[in-house]
Design brief:
By secondary structure, the chain is an all-alpha fold. The protein has one domain: MFS general substrate transporter like domains (Growth Hormone, Chain: A), CATH 1.20.1250. Helices cover about 80% and strands about 0% of the residues. It contains 20 helices and no strands. The protein has helices spanning about 10-20, 25-55, 60-90, 90-110, 115-145, 150-160, 160-180, 185-205, 210-215, 220-235, 235-245, 260-270, 275-305, 315-335, 340-365, 365-395, 400-430, 430-455, 465-470, 475-480. Helix 5 (about 115-145) packs antiparallel against helix 6 and helix 13 packs antiparallel against helix 16. Keywords: Membrane, Transmembrane, Transmembrane helix, Transport.
Length: about 475
Amino acid sequence: MTETPRTPPPSALGARLDRLRFGRRHTVILLALGAGWMFDSFEVQLFSNAIGPLGDHFHASVFERDAVLAVWLGGILLGALAGGALTDRFGRRRMFVLTLLWYAGFTVLTGLSPDLAAVYALRFLAALGVGAEYAIVNAAIAEFMPARVRGKAAVAVMNFWPLGAILAALLAYLLLDTFALASATSWRYLFVLGGLLALVVLYYRRRIPESPRWLASHGRVEEAERIVADLESAEPAHEVRQSAVTGVLGPAPAPPPPQLPVTTALRELVRRHPGRLALGAALDLAEAFGYYGIFALLSVVVLTKVHIRTAQIPFFYILGNLGALAGGLIASLLLDRAGRRGTVAGAYLAAAAGVGLLAWATATGSAAWVTAAFVVSNGAATAAWTSAYPTFTELFPTHLRGAGIGVSVSVGRIGAIVGTLLLPDLATRLGATASYLLVIGFWLIGVGAIGLYALRGGQEAAGRPLESLVPVPAPAAAGA
């Protein structure tokens, strides 16, 4: 009698993924996801460069111009919630291709807007796609990368963000200054070209396979097995044999968790993983308030006070984002070596100190000191948020990972909205010092959150398989 082959459990497939060397196919995945993240950043930075000529073209008031940003951040909030749930239900690959098409298309259409109402609607729709990317990209990169380099790879993807900011500043300089386009057309070129450039990434994203871990979590183990075997086939023969040993067929896995509706997924997160969800929400709230708040203060209060001319502003932000690249690089070097908890706590403390340095520089009235302080503070802030995302992403189970990230990002966007709208007004009424102190306080919330997580015995995930961080629930529990 021939014995029916048993199906390898998801943990065996995960072990095989973790034993792979970081090779060419991992690099393609990293670059394709990172390039999409770069254009997400490009979208965000595009607004700050285009809002001036756009507002002038439509004769918009200060409130109407600020409302464009509020609509944008609101779209990201809802997009993160929806995208997180959808990627858990329909898969990583399908969603990261769809969202790229979505926000690129609506960005191009923004450049064709006939009036301000159309700008609001199209910016909101584009933001839905960008918000969804937060959950989809973070989930995908965590599930593909070997455990020993998972943190470094995730930070590398996040570090495409300052690259997008630099690209946006350069494009704005070329279109708004070098070619001296009229305000009636300059902002349109920014959006149209930005959306078309993002579509270039689609070719590479379509070549990325579905996450084997997501497939296995939904019972599609044979498909997952084929993808893992394909990744193994790219390795030297002795590496393939070593990796294949970990896929020895074991006991049949428990039935996969059901495909959960959004409300059910949220209830399971709150009921089964409240501490991890609270950590993700607190870290994202702190960094979003701090990061967006600083940029709001710079544009409304600081740059005018230190008399940095309009023509110099793109170069000011380019220098600041070079600092951000350095901060992200430092985080990538530390996250796997020093561990998640120590790296995140240190980076959030450094971000708080960077805000203090920026406050001092602002008080001097020196453009040179403000520029130097912005380079340092932006580098520390980038180290903080790029290390935070991988840290809470890997703590959620595969079938809830997108939803967990989405909830955390949504809470963070509330901080971004409040910080962007509150801090400039607070600085106008009470002075910049009060606003800076509030930003420092939010960065320290992040320090407290990761410290409390560690004190309560929260797991250190550096170098550990994802499957060991959140055991697969038993069938009865999954359906509870």
